[in-house]
Amino acid sequence: MRALVTGASSGIGRDMARVLAEQKIDLILVARRKERLEKLKEELHVNVEILCFDLSQQKEVFSLFDKLKDQKIDIVINNAGFGLFGEFLQTDLDRELEMINVNVISYHILTKLFLQKLEKDGGGYILNVCSSAGFLAGPRLSTYYATKNYILKLTMAIYEELRRKKSSIVISALCPGPVNTEFNQVAKGHFAVSGASSEYVAKYAIQKMFQKKLIIVPTIKMKLALFFSRFVPWKGLLRITYRIQERKTK
């Protein structure tokens, strides 16, 4: 088997590459930071192809697919992404648009194009790295939450379309809570509670993907939080989320 992993230079993407390599799955690793990909490649004992693309640029997203469209790929993991803390009134618009390009547009393009490719090739797996944020609205992290809502709901809708036609393609959404990665540093904030290890989240996600699970929530704490959030009114959830995000912002 062969897997494509975007955002593979750090965090969950890097650890997913490690988990897949342990299972003897060859890899195509995509990120902007070539030196990090090369360092990762050195430790993986499978065939690894490194590709440097900026997924905030639509042309590069299409170029990535064009480069891979004739290759055999069994697993596509859309993982690239970032957040931005702060009130919507004050956050930088250019940075938000860049986030939408990475977190939404690149996912949408790659999901559609590789879904069509996997359909022609006879099946495979697509794993979209979403977030528990995809179930909620996020004051002080509003654009990030909105992007994750888009990808989560898109993935769920595609799942039902594939299920009804008895497709051999499996699509899943990974929805972790806080994870110890570079997210906080990039987003200019910090978690109010300790996050799960990216190693654990990556291993759990790959396991559940192969078990054909639609929604993958790695920790009991987050599963319980999402369950009980169903019984809280929307305005109450907004107040709770605001307080949580307020404690994160530097």
What is the gist of this entry?
This protein is of the alpha/beta class and 250 residues long.
Describe the structure.
With 250 residues, this protein is α/β, with parallel strands linked by helices. It has one domain (2-248): Rossmann fold, CATH 3.40.50.720. Helix content is 51%, strand content 15%. The chain has nine helices and nine strands. The protein has helices at 11-22, 34-43, 58-68, 93-121, 142-164, 183-187, 198-210, 220-229, 234-248, and strands spanning 2-6, 26-31, 48-52, 75-78, 124-129, 169-174, 179-180, 196-197, 215-216. The strands form two sheets. It has a seven-stranded parallel sheet with strand order 3-2-1-4-5-6-9, sandwiched between helices. β4, α4 (93-121) and β5 (124-129) form a beta-alpha-beta unit.
Provide the gyration radius in Å: 17 Å
Termini distance? 43 Å
For the secondary structure, the number of strands is 9
CATH class: Alpha Beta
Poorly predicted runs are none
| Biggest sheet architecture | 7 strands, parallel
- The third-level CATH topology is Rossmann fold
The largest beta-sheet arranges its strands as 3-2-1-4-5-6-9
In DSSP terms (H or I, runs of 4 or more residues), the helix count works out at 9
The percent range for strand residues is 15-25%
* Class by SSE composition: alpha/beta
